[in-house]
């Protein structure tokens, strides 16, 4: 349905999005994952026609929409990263305005407002001013405003950032409902791996403006199929031990945690013994060792050497 | 466009406490400044540059001799004749006028040069004098006849000038006041002409309005309350344009504008909504201030329906200009990187044109060069226009000035549409 081809954006000679290729099929939920400053919002802005790419193309059903932004605007709903609402107006008044600029009128408009309010669970408080809303409630109205005109594709830029778990769950449920029950396509941006794992069938991972991996969850996990994650709880922190572990040939990455270290290691025998011996050499006791198959979070760590959230 | 208008009005309405302040401040200021600075407006400019040429074509002695003959010719008792002549003897109108101009409070700022008609015209053309005051032949006699015999229309003093100006108004005010005090037998004829021909002045009383010339029977002086109600009302109304741009900058900052762009609407709906909202708010604001001041201070009591109609049209066209300014600022703001700088710039600009346009202090206290710039600012132009309407109720003059104000409004709106980030392209 929608395709971005070799998108590139340069601000004052600085390339912030570089050669991005991605596509979304009808009814699909696709995740776009990356740490702060990776270029997610910039990519989304180009796809949704708000930003003109320095090069590359955006195609809708095979046709370029760069020169005809109206075509793409008609079918998408965008949930921006910032709360884009009139603080001085009530939720209802906001929705009424945003609905009417999509040419919704009369009963249909009223119905759509009631519908989206119910979807985000704020029917009771619709007449209060946005200014008086909590962060989570604002986020929910921010989403509602993008859904009024029943878009085929909703593009969400970190819709759950900085809110309480209850609102977050509500939003995730809403997105899932839209995708599974209404068949709406979703492009979901986040730096929460769990959210993307839960919602999306396919994931793109971005860092420093580039795509570093993409595919279904299983495909991504396969990147680390020859590896496993080892969480080692130690009696005391030891930077020297960490250094030594990093030097071991089978350790792909090692990182300090609250009470120990986390290792990604190549699957082979004898690893445990070597780790235990290393600990002894540094007079550190191992309290506990857990070994399990890697998560997407680990994949990200592996690919970038960084955690998703710094 | 309607949703945009509704939304902008609603956003304004949510700030109604602010709105109330913006409404009350100009009213309060008009009252305070009206009292405090009444001498500024009503006593005239402090620079002594107002000068007039006084042309006396009449001869008072001859007039009295003639009047005596007229009285003697009446078939009335001798005591009546004696009384009239005795009373009339002290009724020296020309002398009275001379004394008025020589009085301390007037001579401080009006310089009077008595001269001949020809000389006076030269002086006027050379801009040495602001106006020519002509006492035509037969003036005294006509005044006397009117006063004691109720015959004729009385004598008429004539003021000729090249253009309307505040100084001229002040001179006119002095003559007007003098005649009111003298109370009988005189009228004031006010002649404004592009280039007074010599023969016309020499003909004196026979001068009749011709093409290109305007003739008014009386000029109403401006009260300080009128001045400040208008200037304050207008300046605070102009500020609405910056407020609208400020609201638009909120839409940019909070990314609402991106939602609006995503709707695929023609961007001119957005600007059109802003224009309409600014117009309505400006209109309501200025109307409320003037109405409130009218009832509180008796601004325009006893004025004709035509006067009120003209004032209403002034308010309407002025509100259009404010709306033009609002959308112009809005577009400029969208073009500027730094939103705060943009807003500061607009307010600064408004304060500057407010000051040089006479919004805060009377125009004539400003230096000449600044004043001539000030009269070209949209608000200064509007203020001058309104003040002249109060004084002269001259429809033709009003129309041409309104046209210019309308041109300002259209120009600003067109400019705004032109510089607003282009449609279609996803900038
Ligand atoms: N208008 C702009 N001018 C210059 N640089 C920009 C502009 N917009 C974004 N950038 C830069 O581009 C980079 C990517 O920004 P972007 O907002 O796309 O990241 P992101 O992945 O959405 O990050 P976050 O998770 O924090 O939202 C950043 O380094 C940012 O500073
Ligand atoms: Mg972002």
UniProtKB/TrEMBL annotation, chain A:
Swiss-Prot/TrEMBL keywords: ATP-binding, Nucleotide-binding, Transport
Molecular function in Gene Ontology: ATP binding; ATP hydrolysis activity
Domain ABC transporter: 2-233
Keyword Transcription regulation: no
Keyword Transport: yes
InterPro entries the record matches: AAA+_ATPase (IPR003593), ABC_transporter-like_ATP-bd (IPR003439), ABC_transporter-like_CS (IPR017871), DrrA1/2-like_C (IPR025302), P-loop_NTPase (IPR027417)
Protein name: ABC transporter ATP-binding protein
Taxonomic source organism: Paenibacillus paeoniae
Species lineage: Bacteria, Bacillati, Bacillota, Bacilli, Bacillales
């Amino acid at each position: 349905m929608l395709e971005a081809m070799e998108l590139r954006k340069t601000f004052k000679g600085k390339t912030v999005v570089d050669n991005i290729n991605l596509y979304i099929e009808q009814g699909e939920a696709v995740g776009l994952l990356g740490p702060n400053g990776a270029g997610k919002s910039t990519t989304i802005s180009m796809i949704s026609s708000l930003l003109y790419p320095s090069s590359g193309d955006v195609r809708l059903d095979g046709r370029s929409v760069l020169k005809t932004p109206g075509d793409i605007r008609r079918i998408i709903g965008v949930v921006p990263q910032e709360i884009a609402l009139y603080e001085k107006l009530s939720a209802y008044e906001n929705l009424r305005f945003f609905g009417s600029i999509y040419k919704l009128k009369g009963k249909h408009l009223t119905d759509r407002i009631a519908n989206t309010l119910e979807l985000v669970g704020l029917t009771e408080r619709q007449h209060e001013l946005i200014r008086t809303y909590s962060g989570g409630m604002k986020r929910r109205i921010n989403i509602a405003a993008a859904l009024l005109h029943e878009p085929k594709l909703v593009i969400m830029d970190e819709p759950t950032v900085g809110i309480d778990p209850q609102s977050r769950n509500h939003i995730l449920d809403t997105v899932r409902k839209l995708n599974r029950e209404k068949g709406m396509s979703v492009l979901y941006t986040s730096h929460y791996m769990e959210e993307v794992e839960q919602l999306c069938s396919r994931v793109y991972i971005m860092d420093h403006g580039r795509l570093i991996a993409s595919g279904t969850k299983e495909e991504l996990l396969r990147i680390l199929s020859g590896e496993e994650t080892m969480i080692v709880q130690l009696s005391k922190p030891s930077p020297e031990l960490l250094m030594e572990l990093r030097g071991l040939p089978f350790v792909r990455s090692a990182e300090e945690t609250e009470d120990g270290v986390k290792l990604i290691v190549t699957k082979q025998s004898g690893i445990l013994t070597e780790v235990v011996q290393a600990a002894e050499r540094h007079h550190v006791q191992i309290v506990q060792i857990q070994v399990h198959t890697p998560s997407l979070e680990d994949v990200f760590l592996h690919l970038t050497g960084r955690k998703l959230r710094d | 466009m309607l949703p945009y208008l509704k939304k902008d009005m609603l956003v304004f309405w949510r700030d109604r406490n602010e709105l109330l302040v913006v409404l009350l401040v100009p009213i309060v200021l008009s009252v305070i400044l009206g009292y405090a600075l009444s001498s500024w407006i009503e006593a005239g400019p402090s620079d002594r540059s107002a000068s007039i040429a006084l042309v006396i074509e009449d001869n008072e002695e001859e007039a009295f001799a003639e009047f005596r003959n007229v009285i003697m010719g009446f078939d009335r008792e001798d005591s009546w004749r004696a009384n009239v002549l005795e009373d009339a003897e002290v009724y020296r109108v020309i002398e009275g006028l001379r004394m008025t101009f020589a009085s301390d409070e007037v001579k401080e700022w009006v310089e009077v040069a008595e001269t001949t008609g020809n000389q006076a015209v030269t002086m006027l053309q050379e801009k040495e004098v602001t106006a020519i005051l002509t006492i035509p032949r037969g003036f005294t006699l006509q005044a006397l006849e009117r006063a004691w015999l109720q015959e004729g229309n009385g004598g008429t003093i004539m003021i000729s000038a090249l253009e309307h100006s505040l100084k001229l108004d002040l001179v006119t005010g002095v003559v007007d006041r003098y005649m009111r005090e003298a109370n009988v037998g005189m009228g004031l004829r006010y002649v404004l002409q592009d280039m007074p021909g010599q023969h016309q002045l020499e003909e004196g009383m026979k001068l009749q309005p011709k093409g290109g010339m305007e003739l008014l029977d009386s000029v109403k002086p401006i009260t300080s309350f009128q001045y400040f109600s208008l200037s304050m009302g207008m300046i605070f109304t102009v500020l609405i344009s910056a407020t609208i741009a400020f609201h638009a900058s909120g839409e940019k900052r909070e990314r609402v504008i991106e939602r609006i762009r995503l709707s695929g609407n023609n961007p001119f709906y957005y600007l059109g909504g802003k224009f309409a909202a600014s117009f309505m708010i400006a209109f309501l604001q200025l109307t409320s201030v003037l109405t409130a001041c009218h009832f509180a201070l008796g601004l325009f009591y006893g004025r004709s329906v035509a006067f009120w109609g003209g004032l209403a049209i002034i308010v309407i066209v002025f509100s259009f200009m404010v709306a033009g300014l609002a959308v112009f600022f809005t577009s400029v703001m969208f073009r500027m990187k730094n939103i705060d700088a943009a807003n500061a710039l607009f307010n600064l600009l408004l304060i500057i044109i407010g000051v040089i346009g006479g919004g805060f202090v009377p125009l004539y206290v400003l230096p000449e060069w600044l004043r001539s710039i000030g009269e070209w600012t949209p608000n200064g132009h509007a203020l001058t226009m309104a003040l002249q309407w109060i004084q002269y109720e001259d429809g033709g003059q009003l129309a041409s000035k309104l046209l210019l104000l309308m041109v300002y409004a259209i120009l600003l709106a067109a400019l705004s549409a032109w510089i607003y980030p282009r449609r279609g392209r996803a900038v």
